Amino acid sequence: MARQRQAVTIKHVAADAGVSLQTVSRVINKEPNVRAEMIERVQASIDRLGYVPSIAAQRMSGSRSYLILALNDRERTIADWRARQGTDWVDQMLLGSMLACAPHGYRVIVELVDTHSDHIERELLAAIAALRPDGVILTPPHSQNPVISGLLAQQGISFARIGSLAEGPGFTLTMGDEGAARLATEHLIELRHRRIGLIAGSPEYELSSWRIAGWRAAMAQASLNCEQLLADGDFSYGSGLVAARQLLACSRPPTAIIASNDQMAMATLSVAREKGLSVPDDLSVISFDDTPIVRFNHPPLTAVVQPIAEVSARAAELIIAERTGKDVGDSPAAIPATLAIRKSTAVPRNPMPV
Amino acid sequence: MARQRQAVTIKHVAADAGVSLQTVSRVINKEPNVRAEMIERVQASIDRLGYVPSIAAQRMSGSRSYLILALNDRERTIADWRARQGTDWVDQMLLGSMLACAPHGYRVIVELVDTHSDHIERELLAAIAALRPDGVILTPPHSQNPVISGLLAQQGISFARIGSLAEGPGFTLTMGDEGAARLATEHLIELRHRRIGLIAGSPEYELSSWRIAGWRAAMAQASLNCEQLLADGDFSYGSGLVAARQLLACSRPPTAIIASNDQMAMATLSVAREKGLSVPDDLSVISFDDTPIVRFNHPPLTAVVQPIAEVSARAAELIIAERTGKDVGDSPAAIPATLAIRKSTAVPRNPMPV
DNA sequence: GTGAAAGCGCTAACAA
DNA sequence: TTGTTAGCGCTTTCAC
After folding, report:
1. A188: how many CB neighbours lie within 10 A of its CB?
2. pTM exceeding the 0.90 threshold for the entire prediction
3. Residue B268 CB neighbours (<10 A)
4. What confidence tens digit (pLDDT) does each residue in B198-215 have?
5. Is A60 an 8 Å CB contact of chain B?
6. Residue nearest to nucleotide C2 (CA to C1')
7. Which residues contact A334 (CB under 8 A, 6 or more apart)?
8. Mind listing the pLDDT tens digit for each residue in A131-140?
């Protein structure tokens, strides 16, 4: 098969409309200072010929590449995909960002990068050199990596940081983690829980501390003590087991536990089972992260629902708006998570055990 | 921020190595007829400068775009993403194709296209004009759409059709649906089921008929009658309800049902519940599609595990190999699905009801 | 085996 | 407001 060049190019359109290339270019890019009549004429030719500009050529001439990179942690992402547990972070990102990109002619490319690798810089630079994306959407833990931020800023690529509020370049976006933790805690307080444990996420993630802060705030507001109620975790199932055991083994164990993600929530359920505690009667459990595994559990878990798609859409919009020179909107932008109340939270059977 | 051009270009490398652009280009593209010494010298400069070729420029000059489009049905994909039930078809596709692409410098772009739209042709042509991908991976139902196949062939773009064996251009790949249906049926026969129902998938999908064929073949081999045991479905939950009710309402109802996807399997479970049938004692159920919803069910369902990642990887390899001019391997390629035996299949309590 | 020239499709800068 | 020119970074001829 012969190597095909572009079927219809800007030249064809220009010839067809009887104008210069430049005029066609101006119409394509919706530039000002073109007579309405011209726009109409050119647009008619574009439609008739079915012309679509070549992204590569646009990129070459120093314009936009219409490409946005969705940067995710390689190890985590591949592990999630392999596990087939329904973790749909990437899907939700695609859902949000692709739908936001489509009307502007942008595309999203999922790019996986090693977090802990020392050549993360080289990997990212290679992707940038190869694709020259107009923007990059960073997810935790990349979003709080100053090496990445610095590199992108220096390259003049606009980017959005999801789940980070650290000072520095780039748009910052959150899902209101502190508020969400507060929401979850308050829900439990309303159910008359007094001892509410929290299994924290990995300290490598900024949002882990926000969740702790939200929980602390809600507890303080209700004049409840947090002592012995905070356990470390790192988002892994194993760390959840350790943390849940620690919480439930203390002198005055909690009647409710908030786990900072789905894996640790599942681990908490497992520990409850091994201790003969029934959920939710003996122990209420809330999961941060409303994944299928959480929803299909028996009982289905009360969970914090993170608006990943919405945040990703906003991230894409911010990046596109910046390029277009339009009003960029607010940053930091917070799109609050909500609480889905299900069957794993209830009034405690023994409000004050032991 | 100043619009940044490529940091390191082929010119820099050429100057650094003291050779012509052409020689650098030859080294990049691993062309023959370059002295080993030259290759080494150029490669050293490339490494030292951290040079990565611009995909856009490569595309412009008539070479490869290093882009592969993963074409999926828009409506279905977005519905799955929104439903958040853990359907991970796209994830598995990405897992397989991205990992296969990475070593060759290729990227994958997920593209959603309306199946039933009359401007599907325009949509696809627009994507091709904009990106000029080196290849396209088609999934059902696109993979069996002759309009799409014809268009891609005419554009000289290599493509792989997953789940289609229809004559025509493009590589064809399957997950051995007939064999998988046979496997599932034989598993039930071994458990001494004699009346095994099948809920078919949408007739718009070629693979629906393959599954029927596999079931029929296994039944015939065991000298079992298929009468009244085949019900129509269209992969939707609703159609599964209708089909399951029909099967279970007939004069000699089945003791086992194979549903052609997860949704219809769930529907079958629901109908079993409403009829007071216990699974697996009164009714065995097998799902085609091993999604989280199936795995997390109580009881977890015996299911056909489709090697989506493997097939997608193979599809990407075929496309890349064709470009590279290497041995392309076989087409049609079949990567057989397997059967995960879980708790929804057992020896029937009443081998011959009524 | 290596290099020089032309051009891919488009836009920035400038001119008219 | 519109058109002309030059050039983006690379690969394809075609010379040498």
Report:
1. 30
2. yes
3. 32
4. 999 999 999 999 999 999
5. yes
6. B23
7. A173, A174, A175, A176, A179
8. 999 999 999 9
